[in-house]
Task: structure prediction
Amino acid sequence: MDRFLTLLGLALRAKQVEVGEVPVHTALAHGKVKIVYLAADAAENTVDKVRRHLGNTPCRYVSADKSRLGYALGRKSCALVAVTDPGFARRLEELLPMAAQHQDGGVVL
Result:
C-alpha cells in the first residue's frame, strides 16, 4: 500500500488527480477521470454521491483509511480521489492488487 500511496502523492504533485467531492464530480462530468479511489472508511453518503456521477468510470476502495489517504495527499483526511492521467491510473492499478484491498475486492460499481 505504501508504494500505491507514494505514487498517488506523486500524481497529485503532477496535477493528475482531483481530491474531494466537488473537484472529483466536476472532473467526472467533464469526462477527465480514468479511475476513482475511495478510502476504506468513506461514508456511505460519499459512496452514493460518487456512484451517481461515475458513468463507466471504474471506482475502487483501497485499504487505507481517510487519514492515511489524506496524509499521502498532504491533507488531514481524504475519502475520495480521482486519477485523470491514463499512465498514472494504469500504474496505480498495477500496484493496488499487491496491496490489501477492501473486503469486497475493492470494486464499488
In short: Helices lie at 2-13, 21-29, 44-54, 66-72, 86-95. The CA atoms of residues 1 and 98 lie 8 Å apart. The first strand starts at residue 17 and ends at 19.
